[in-house]
Structures are given as C-alpha cells and as structure tokens.
Write the structure tokens for this entry.
Amino acid sequence: MNAVEIEEAISQLADTPFDPAHFPFAFLAAFGNPATTIKRLRDGNTNNSDLGGVLQRNHIHILTAPKGETDTALSALRASAATARAKARFILATDGEELQAEDLTSGETLVTTYADFPNHFGFFLPLAGISTVQQIRDSAVDIRATSRLNKLYVQLLKDNPEWGRADRQHDMNHFMARLIFCFFAEDTDIFHGDGLFTATVEQMSERDGSNTHEVIGEIFRAMNVPIRDRATAGLKRWADAFPYVNGGLFSGNPDVPVFSRIARSYLTHIGGLDWKQINPDIFGSMIQAVTDEEERGALGMHYTSVPNILKVLNPLFLDDLRARLEEAGDNARKLLNLRSRMARIRVFDPACGSGNFLVIAYKQLREIEAEINRRRGEADRKSDIPLTNFRGIELRDFAAEIARLALIIAEYQADVLYRGQKLALAEFLPLNAQNWITQGNALRLDWLSVCPPTGTGVKLTGDALFNTPLDQAQIDFENEGGETYICGNPPYLGSTWQDDDQKDDLRRIFEGRTKSWKSLDYVAGWFMKAADYGTHTPTVAAFVSTNSICQGQQVPILWPLIAATGHQIAFAHTSFKWANLASHNAGVTVAIVAIARDPGAARRLFALNSSGETVVQQAANINAYLVAAPDVIVTKSGRPISGEAEMTKGNQATDGGHLLMTRDEALALNLTPDQWARFVRRIYGSAEFIQGKLRYCLWIEDRHRVEADDIPPIAARIGGVRAMRLASKDKGANEMAARPHQMREMHSATVGTIIVPSVSSESRPYLPAGYAPPGTIVSNLAFALYDAPLWNLAVIASRLHLVWIATVCGKLKTDFRYSNTLGWNTFPIPQLTQTNRDDLTSAAENILLAREAHFPATIADLYAPGKMPDDLRAAHEANDEILERIYIGRRFRNDTERLEKLFQMYVAMTTPRGKRA
C-alpha cells in the first residue's frame, strides 16, 4: 500500500464507531497487513501479547483501554516484557477518545484525540515499510487532500465521461486547479468568511448534486468579474461575496462538470480539511499525479524531499547567500546590497514538474530576505523578490498550472509569516497576470526565450497567468542584470527505456556532436542544453541525475562534449539513494552534478560517510567520475596496465543449445564414468556461479573427436550444432560449423580458474569472485583468469576493486557490469613484493575457507545484504586491510579517498613519461 491508500483506510477507521475488540486488527489492516496475517493474530497463533492486547513481532504492541486510562495502558505497554522480546518498534494505546503512541526506536511520542489521529498517520508509516523523511511524514494534510481530490477527480470522470477525452483534458485539469485555489483561499482568509466556498456549495446546491455545477459555475464567474463591473454583471447575491481574483484563473472556459450526489459529498469532505496546513512544496508534486493516469496508482509517491532539494540548492547559491548574510552582520549598507542582489537572482528549472525546486528556492530566499529586513528594522517591508524570477518548463500542462499555483500559495504564506495576515491579504488579490512557467518539451524549446540572458529583452508578454498559451512564457524580468541558476530533477530514462520521441529529442541535441548518443541516458539532454545555455550568459546549472552518466561508457560520450563548451564541474554529490514515499522503495541511486564555465578555484565534493552523514571536501578539480582528481577518461586497455594476470571472457558456445546441458540432460547421455570424465564439464556463467545452479557442457578435444562421434547421443548433439551454425547469418558461426564439437573458444585451466561474474548486484558489499578447480569451464557470461596466482583473487574481491569497477564500468540496470578491458586491465596495482603476494594469497585462501565453512550456502546466500556471515566479513576486512596498506600504509577512510588514489595512480601509469607534470 502507498501512503494515500493507508490514509484512506485510517480515515475510514476513525469515522466508524470505536470497537475495542476490532480496533487493533482494523488498524493493522489499514497499514497493509494481509488477511492471513490478521487471522493468525486473531486466532492467537502469532499474538504474544502479555496484556491482552495485540502484539505483532518487530512492529507494534496495541492495547485498548477503559475510558480515561490511556496513560496507564501506554505505561503498561512500555513496561511489557513481551514488547521487549518481540522487538516491537511502536506501542499504541487508546480508549476511543484519546490515542497515545510511542516510537520505541526514536523515543518520539504521539498524543491526540481519537478523531484526529488520521492527521498523524504518518507517525506509523514504518509499519508499512515506508521509511521517509520528517517533512513527508508530517504532511498528513497534504496526503489527505491528495487522496480526496483523487476520489473527486475519478468520480467526476465517471459522471462526465466526455471530460476524460483528450480534447477536454485541459478543461478538466484547469477546473481542478480552480478548486484547489478555492479550498486554500477559504481557509486562509483570502475569501472573507469561514469556509465560504464549501459552505456556499453546501447551502445553495441540492443534496443530490443536480445543480452543484451551476452553483460552482456562478462562483467561478464572480471571481472573474472586477468589482467595478459587479453591478451590471447580474451575479447571484450569494456569489457576489467572492472577490475578484484575476490572473486568468477563472477566465476562459466557464464550463463545470456535472456532480452526482457522491461527487458533491467528496467535494464537501475536501472542504472540511484545514488547508492552512498545506505545504506547496509537497502538495504540488502529489496533486499532479491526480490527473496523470500512469501515476495515479502511485499517488503522491514521487515527492522530492526538501533535504534532497537542498542538496542541490544549498551549494548552488543558498550557502553563499547565507555566508554573505553572516558576513554582513548588522551593517545596513551590506545588508541592503545583499537584498538588492537577491532581488535579481533568477532560478530556472527546465524540468520543473509541479514546481518543487522553485517553491523551495523561493521560500529559502524569502527567509534570508526576512532576516535582512529584521536586521534593518524593516520587518513589514514588501518583498523585493518577484515570483517571475522563478522560471520553469514542464511537459504536462496540469503540472505547469500547479507549479504556478504552488508558487502563488508559497508567496502568500511567506507574506503571512514575515509580514502578517493583514498586509498579506491586502496585497494578494488580484493575482498577477504574468505567465512564467512554460508548458512544453524542454529538450526542444529554446531556453534563452524562457529565461533570457542578462541584459536582453524578450519578444512576447503573457497577459494572463492561467489563460495565456502555456508555451508563451517570454516576459521581462522585474529586476534585470542578476545571476541565473539552473536546477532541477529531470527525467532519467536509460537508453533501453526511451521511446521514439525521446530518442528523437536526444538526436536533435547530440547529432553532429557524437555518433554514440543513443547510449546516453535521457537526462544527458538537460546537461547538454544547460552547457549550451551557459555559453550565452553566465550561469551555474545543477541537476539530480542517475549516477550512470558519471560511470562507464557514458563518461567518454557526454563529458568531452560538456568540456568543449568550456564547462567544468563546479560541485557534485556522489551517489546516494533518492528515496520517496513508496512502500519498501529503496529509491533510485542518483548523483548531483553542477557545471559552470567559471567554477572558481575551490570545488566542493559532497559524499555520505558510513554513518549516513554528508561530508564535504574542497577540491582543486572534480572529474567526470565525480572524483577529486585530474580530468581523465578511463579507456579500454588490451592488457593490464599493472602487469597482473590476464583476464579473458569465458567460452562462447554458439551451439543452439546442443553443447550446453542441464544435469538431467547430461545424465540422459548414459555415459560411462570414463566417458563422463572425458566429455562432460561443469560450466559457470554469472548466474551459475552466484546462485549455485548446476549446468554442464560437452567439452570435446580434437584427439577425442572420433570416440565422441561413436556415442549416438553426443553425435546427435554435434549434428545439431553443425546445422545451427550453417543456418546462421553470422559468417563467423558458419566457419565454426567445420568444428561443431567445440565452442568458439576452448579455454580451460590446468591448475585452477578465478571466476569473475560479468554482472553482480550493486547491493552486495564485495564483488563475488571465486576459484574453481581444473576442468571447470567458464562461459562467455563471466570472466576468467586461467592458472593465475591466487593473490589476484584477493585484489578482485576487495572493496578497492569494487569501487573502481562501479565507477569506470558502470551498471546494467542496478547491477555492476564487469569488463575485463575497462575494469581489470585499467585497475592500478602498485609493484608487489613477494611478501605482499604471500599475504594476499593467504587472505584469498581465508575468504575461500570462510565460504566453504557455510556449505551448501551459495554466493547469493553468503553475500546477501545484511546477512553476510561474521567470519566471511572478517576475512574480507582482513583482506582489505592487507591490500590497502600496500597502497598507502593504512586503511582508506572512505570510497572517495580510494578513488582519488586510484585515479592518481591511473594517470601516472597511463601518461607517457615525457608528458608527466
């Protein structure tokens, strides 16, 4: 279940009469527990409460109490031995009038009335496997509003199917934007009177909903009539109480969809929420999903957390502004200069969605400006920061409208916070009529027309905020000549998942620059457009991106093109999880990269340490792999640059399934033990090695060919290989038909083989390489070092090697994609003494022995996240200790330091002696 579905279930529970016996089970069901789990708890099979309550192991202990004894019940739960034994995270007590709970992990408590506890459902989200940041957890009103708006939207489309057609989609979206404004306005005194909109609809419309559309239409018409024209407009007396809003929000198509009794009920329920608590930075991204059929199933799950947004905005410009504020102290002149500078800052998000980045940027600037005004004794001063300095491009029209609405709400809330309700109201209406969020395809629009360069004018002026054509955003800035910052979280989309239109977007940008553009992630288009934009006007652009554009094959394609425009990396945040509200969602792994033509002498590199805290490093340079090292592109090498053992790809069968066999197929050959020993081998690819799958192959040396042909089952398989290769359109396969008894390659070891999977999950703490005895065959789905000294395994199985291949080889989906020419052959290894080799050999043996001690556990079992056996982990730690001391005389502090050393060595090893600095 997602957060919206949980909220709905909790709200339904709170609305029904309290039943002490039923409550615990209904509560657990609301958080996604299946009926079978609830039944086992009801039957007592899994309920180990020692207080007569309901105890779900690892989750929660619930106890219902007599009236007035909630405090006592919670104390009993806290002291319960069963609570401790079951490692319950939460305890909850309620008497149907009051509800109290405690998070035993954090110590945080909740005390609320029973009727109001749905507004605090976020407190319990971990019960549904939803780990999220505080800002989302506390946004219960936003989630409840989203849930109810979604119900209304779906019901209205059911009642008005014609409004669901493509040609009416904009009308429907615009109608929803109008409703959202009304709900917010009636709870924030923008409309005079308490709950004016909802109350008017309830009083003037029939309970069956039959004339609700007429009542709402009249209200909307009133808000489009200036006060001076009211006398002649023929408005209903009850509609005349609504103010003139302007801004185009209530102009245009006056139609309102027809309401059924159910739809009218949903509307009044929405009006019953407290919209003063709406957070525009959160609500906008959630509500845009209401009208997006693809996103509705994950309603509100694509929220971008404020802390993550600030990972972009703080180093982009906010940190500098705060530093200047600190430097200014109470100096009136310096404070004035800083305020004037801030009024000219333009923030441009060319993938703005519902405006999260723009809203957060605006709110942060208003906070700094308010402090300036306070220090200057001008607390009531009107803001100098215009909304039109916050530009955006968004593909979906409703998201673009919501972005504008979110900024309007943010402006009003900031005015109330910093100037007071009276001044905020006096200046809020009528709305500004300018249109500064553009609806369109950001990769095809001219960014210079949306956010013009400093000192240049623009061609068009929008005359209505919500009614101007959405692709006409070219308006002058109020405060010309300032700084421009580009930011955002553009769509990622690896090359495999791009549709034809998206491929064409990238073609338009990269064709003529590189022939390899089809391999780029979709987000690369935003980086290239930002670099082109930066050649016309000074700017710094920072985007959240999949970390794959800074790994593997994309680095040599994209980053030389960025560098050709004169841009360098100004700051970056190395890989971290960009989590959202979805249940059990670990989030996509992303990086933040900022580019500028003049990034300054000191670049900043942010990373998460082992405790999950952000650390920052000052660097003279940050390269395309997001390492504090010189600019270098790691390229494939035919041989190991450090002179270590050669690694080759395994043997490719090209057999049509005739040389490769399952165990049953191999046994079906009915071979004698001697024949089995001569003709059958165990074969490993990545899956066979990691998951312990049994697979075999025919392995026929030329000297045994005649004997093999005399064994009918083997001869039949050889014939099948010949037929397949002859029928192939591959000339190489045709030529191989001359030796149908063999694979394309025939590599095997006489002493032993080190096996390296070509694909391995990124969640494993080490690359699961291994060792196999002689006679073992490696397929082309893995790599092999034949008869190599065992110390090579110690290197491959190290943390040091893992961070290298993760950086230079890149990933396949979320798995590490190994490459011998790019990962192993480029890996820098210092010159080893015999003692070094002996120590590493012992370390590799200890790793293998630790694995063997857990037979028959597979590699997948042993290296599962959080389940690695202690002795195996200790063996790896000892291996890392030995290897890293060879490099720098001690353990590396973190992966950032590991990569810095490796890149330093790589540059030294690959730069011709005469060209070294």
Residues 296-302, 455-476, 580-586 have pLDDT under 50 and may be disordered. The CA atoms of residues 367 and 528 lie 33 Å apart. The longest helix spans residues 306-328.
